[in-house]
């Protein structure tokens, strides 16, 4: 009989242990579920925070884009203001020259005055970065010269070289803004 009782005791102990193990597994599952829920809440909070940062960054970029567009428009609208201010004294000189033409008797003084105004204008333009393209005794350079015609020459040393200028060319800060129109010896 003892063996039945001992077997039954062992079975009860095993059953109790199994129940305890199952209870522990349930507790562990509950803890794991709670941890997953906590992680989900943390993940949702992180997602909401990242979304808010994205929206703020997007709004900041949109504001930056609008501000730079306004600044570019303002520069285009008023960019030539300094140039115009620099040209105003030259315009004043031309006005005085024209007014003096009516009463002038000395044509040489008028020529000298016009030459002074031209020098003043060219000096201002040079200070703004304008330079004349060199065409004196040089070979045709299609990067800065535009050959409008060829003219036959008897001197072999003038063939392929510029022999006359139809229109001066200019560079602004090393960028060609008008090609020099030249006549080339052939």
Count up the domains: 3
Count the helices. How many? 3
SSE order: HHHEEEEEE
The chain-level mean pLDDT equals 85
Q: What is the CA-CA span between the terminal residues?
A: 136 Å
Structural class assignment? alpha+beta
Give the spatial strand order of the biggest sheet. 1-4-5
Choose one word for the global shape: elongated
Approximate helicity band? 55-70%
Q: Beta-sheet strand percentage? A: 15-25%
Low-confidence stretches: none
CA radius of gyration is 46 Å
Number of strands: 6
Protein model, in words:
The protein has 186 residues and is of the alpha+beta class. The chain folds into three domains: 78 residues; 49 residues; 55 residues, Roll (Nucleotide Exchange Factor Grpe, Chain A, domain 2), CATH 2.30.22.10. The protein is built from three helices and six strands. The strands form two sheets. Strands 1-4-5 form a three-stranded antiparallel sheet. It has a three-stranded mixed sheet with strand order 2-6-3, with no helix packed on it. Strand 4 and strand 5 form a beta hairpin. The model has no long low-confidence stretch (mean pLDDT 85).
